[in-house]
C-alpha cells in the first residue's frame, strides 16, 4: 500500500503556507478587535452623558461635544441634499438615457478619478473654489459642497448597480402600456432600485462622518451652538472628527476617546443598517 | 364640443415638455462629475504653479532645505517627497503580503461562516475614521517605538529623540489603513478566476496550496496589481492618521527620524502660511495631485491590459 494513490503525501511547504495564510487573516481580524476594544476600554470609563448635551466652555467649566454633533448632522444632511439628487440623476442618465458610448466612457472615467482623489485635495479645492471664489469662507455650506463632490462617486455607482439589477422586462412592460420614459423611471425603476440607492446613501453617510482632512479648511473648527437654524450653515462649524483631532493635538485624551467612542458607534450603526437593507431587499434572494 | 374628446395624445405637449426637462436635468447631473474633475485639475494647476515661477522649479523639487519662515526663506520639498515615496513603498511592502494572504483565505479556503466574520471585520476596518487611527497610533504605536528607540540609541550622542513619532510608526499606521482596500479588490479578482483552472490543477494532482500559489494567484495577477495601485493611492493621500504619528518635522526619511509627508506638510502649515509660503503649499498639493493622476493612469492601463488578455 506504500505507493497507493490514497496515501496523500503531505508537504511541509503546504503546511507553512497554510499557517502563513491563517496568520495573516488573524492579523487582519485582530486589528479590528484591538482598535474597537482599546477605544471601548479607554472611552467607556470616561463616558458621561454630560458630554453629549454640553458645550465646551471655560466660563461655565463644562466640557461637551453637543455643537460638534449638531455640526456633523448639518453637514451630513446638507451634503446628502446636494449630492443625492445629482448622484442619482447622473446614474439614471448613464443607465437609461445615454446612447453615446464615448460620453458614457468619459463620465465613468471621471467618476473613477473622483473616487481616487484624496480628501486633502478636495479640502484645498473646496477652500479655493467654494471658500474664496464663491466667498463662503469657512462655513458648513463650504464643507458640505466639498464633501458633495467627494461622495458623488459612491452614490452614483451604487445607484447604477441597483438600476442595472432591475429586470429589463419591467422597463419594456411599462413602456409597452404607454408610459413615457420619465414616468417609467419615476414609478417603476426608482421604486425597485430604492434599496440599492439607500445603501449608497448610507455608505456616503459613513464616509462623511469619518471625513476630516477635507473639512479642516472648508468647514473650519469652531464649536458653537447654532443661533439660527438656517443661518448656521453660513457659519464655521467643526465636526466630531475635527474636534477629535483638536483634542488629540492638545493631548486631551479623555475627551478624544469619548468622541472616538461616539464615532465608532455611529460607524458601526451605519454599517449594520446598510447590511440590513441590502439583505432585506436582496433582489436575488429566493422566496 | 371638440375639446371634450378624450384623446391619448391630448396632453402630449405638457408630457413631452416634462420628458425633455427630465432628460436635460439628468444630463446636467451626469456632467457634474466631468466639470468637477476639470475644475479640480484646473484649480490645482492654477494655484500650484505661481510658486514654481517665483522660487524656481529646481529650488522647490530638488532642494532639501525647508525653511519657509527664515529671513531668507527656502522651500525645498525633496525630503517631503522622498518621505512620501519611501513611506508608502514600505507600507505597501508590509500590507500587501498580509492583505493578499487574507484575501486568499477569504476566496479559497475559509468556510462560509468564517468568511462572513472576516468580511464584516474588513468592512468595519474600512469605515473607521482616519483620525481614530491617528489617536490609536499615538497612544499604542508611538510608546512602543519610543521603547525601541531608547534601546537602539542608548549610547548615541547625535540622535534626536522623537518620543516614538517617527517614520516607522507612520508606516505601520499606513499599512493597517490600506489593508481593507487590498483585501477587497484582491478577493474580487480571485473570485473572478474561472473554477476550471482550480479543478484542472487539482485533477493533475496538485495540492490546494500549489493550486493557489501556482495557478490562481498568477491568473489573478492583474487584479492584484490594481489592488496594489489603489492601495498606493490610498496611502499617499492619507493625512489625519499620520499627521501626529509621524512627528511632523521635515527630515530625511530614516526609520527613526521624525518626518513630514506631502499631505501632512499641507495641513500642518496651511493654517498660518501666507504669501509665497502659502503658494508653495499649493505646489505641494499639485505634486500630490500629479502622483494621484499617474496612479490613476497606471490603473487604467492595467485594467485595459487585463481586458485584452481576457479576450
- Please list the strands of the largest sheet of chain B in the order they lie side by side: 1-2
What is the CATH topology assignment of the largest domain in chain A? MetI-like fold
Q: In which order are the strands of the major sheet of chain A placed?
A: 1-2
- What's the total count of β strands of chain A? 2
Q: N-to-C terminal Cα separation of chain B, in Å?
A: 65 Å
CATH class of the largest domain in chain A: Mainly Alpha
CATH class of the largest domain in chain B: Mainly Alpha
> Could you say which structural class the secondary elements and strand pairing of chain B correspond to?
mainly alpha
The amount of helix of chain B comes to over 70%
User: How many domains comprise the coordinates of chain A?
Assistant: 2
The rough form of chain A would be described as globular
Largest sheet of chain B: 2 strands, antiparallel
What do the pLDDT scores of chain B average to? 84
Task: For this entry, give a set of tags.
heterodimer; A: mainly alpha; MetI-like fold; B: 311 residues; mainly alpha; two-stranded antiparallel ribbon; 1% strand
